[in-house]
């Protein structure tokens, strides 16, 4: 078919084809939620092995690994939706519900069960504060994802900056700590870390709903403008990961990388507020009005 200028016009896909195209990112979103569901089921297996610290550490490591693996699906569902032009409000809702399960409920359950089992808490009065702290993380994740849905439906802007810590980043901060501690030599390593995880989860929850801006390194690395810098950064990161894996622990580098990202956002925010750095600094995220969630679909 040709238009008035004699150029060939591409016919729009039929409704049936569109439905099939939307099935691809929706399937990836379902895989995301299934990983979160599996992580919760694996976490609950720890109650069968309360007297074996090594088995419990293995269980918690598998659960944390499933949550981190879900981030692969979370990243590719948005990518395929944009690639296939299959974005929709239905997909946005599905994505947020999946993220709520995987990056909200699953990490909160993991931290609560781990703190419960590792301390052998039997009295309800000792466990309630842990539940409250993990509940704050869960509630903040829900607030953030609900806020994203509102912005996604009524605003069309995209940003290179997150307003608040993205929920996958908060979950990754917890899970990389658990993986590192669970795989460290010595049975007491995980016990030394779990004491602070409920408190850290609460801090991460408040950061998710805060106005602290975080750089979108995913967009930076994928940008064609920074092709050479992107290749150099990726190469250095892979080299650092390989070296740390051979010398110390394969999960040390992800643990440091993610949590430095969390802390750096706070440092840069207060440095910007107090005038120590300029807004144009390449490692400082300038606050914006339109928050967007990492890995989630934008219509």
Considering DSSP H and I runs of 4 or more, what fraction of the residues is helical? 55-70%
**What's the architecture in CATH terms?**
Up-down Bundle
Q: Output the CATH topology.
A: Four Helix Bundle (Hemerythrin (Met), subunit A)
> What is the strand tally?
2
Protein described:
- The chain is mainly alpha-helical and 299 residues long.
- It has one domain: CDP-alcohol phosphotransferase transmembrane (TM) domain (Four Helix Bundle (Hemerythrin (Met), subunit A), Up-down Bundle), CATH 1.20.120.1760.
- 69% of the residues lie in helices and 2% in strands.
- The protein has 10 helices and 2 strands; from the N terminus they run H-H-H-H-E-H-H-H-E-H-H-H.
- It has a two-stranded antiparallel sheet with strand order 1-2.
Explain briefly what this protein structure is.
With 299 residues, the protein is mostly helical. The protein contains 10 helices and 2 strands.
């Amino acid at each position: 078919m040709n238009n008035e200028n004699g150029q060939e016009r591409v016919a729009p896909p039929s409704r049936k084809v569109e439905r099939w195209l939307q099935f691809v990112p929706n399937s990836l979103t379902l895989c995301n939620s299934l990983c979160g569901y599996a992580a919760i089921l694996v976490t609950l297996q720890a109650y069968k092995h309360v007297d074996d610290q090594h088995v419990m550490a293995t269980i918690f490591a598998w659960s944390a690994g499933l949550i981190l693996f879900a981030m692969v699906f979370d990243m590719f569902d948005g990518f395929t939706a944009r690639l296939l032009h299959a974005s929709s409000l239905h997909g946005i809702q599905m994505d947020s519900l999946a993220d709520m399960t995987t990056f909200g409920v699953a990490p909160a359950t993991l931290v609560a069960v781990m703190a419960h089992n590792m301390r052998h808490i039997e009295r309800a009065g000792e466990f309630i504060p842990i539940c409250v702290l993990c509940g704050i993380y869960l509630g903040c994740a829900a607030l953030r994802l609900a806020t994203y849905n509102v912005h996604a439906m009524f605003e069309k802007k995209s940003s290179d900056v997150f307003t608040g810590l993205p929920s996958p980043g908060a979950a990754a901060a917890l899970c990389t700590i658990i993986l590192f501690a669970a795989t460290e030599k010595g049975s007491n390593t995980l016990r030394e870390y779990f004491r602070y995880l409920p408190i850290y989860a609460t801090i991460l929850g408040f950061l998710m709903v805060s106005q602290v801006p975080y750089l979108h390194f995913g967009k930076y690395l994928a940008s064609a403008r920074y092709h050479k810098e992107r290749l150099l950064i990726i190469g250095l990161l892979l080299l650092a990961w390989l070296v740390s894996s051979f010398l110390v622990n394969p999960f040390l580098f992800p643990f440091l990388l993610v949590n430095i990202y969390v802390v750096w956002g706070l440092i840069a925010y207060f440095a910007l507020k107090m005038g120590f750095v300029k807004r144009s600094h390449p490692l400082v995220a300038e606050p914006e009005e339109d928050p967007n969630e990492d890995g989630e679909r934008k219509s």
